[in-house]
Amino acid sequence: MSDMIAYCGLDCRKCDAYLATIHDDQELREKTAKLWAELNNAPILPEHINCDGCRVDGRKTVYCQSLCGIRQCALQREVTTCGDCPEMETCPTVGALLSNNPDALKNLKG
Q: How many angstroms separate the CA atoms of 50 and 69, rounded?
């Protein structure tokens, strides 16, 4: 599995934060920060939108580093992704994301 597949199964290469980082796109950073702040009811600013990928060394967004319960759970359980967790199919933490993102589930199942 690619290191660019996040713990939850999303493809980091398609994430606006990752794209803004690799293309140094300030407009995309601003758009992403505004959307994520609204969705998460959290103070996410454009300067927080720098990420090299969820599972690779390097920069992480504020959301991915501190707020993402899925990433925190996977790190605590020491699994490569949620696909390696025996509770994935019944997990409420990743369940909502997977029900809305069939590609993420496909990524986790290989």
A: 19
Residue 44 in contact with residue 63, Cβ under 8 Å? yes
Long-range contacts of 42-48 (CB under 8 A, 24+ apart): 42/67
- Report the predicted TM-score, pTM, of the whole model to 2 decimal places: 0.85
Write the pLDDT tens digit of every residue in 47-76.
999 999 999 999 998 888 888 999 999 999
The DSSP code for 67 is I
Spell 34-48 as b/e; 16+ CB within 10 A means b: eebbeeeeeebebeb
Domain chopping of the chain, boundaries: 12-109
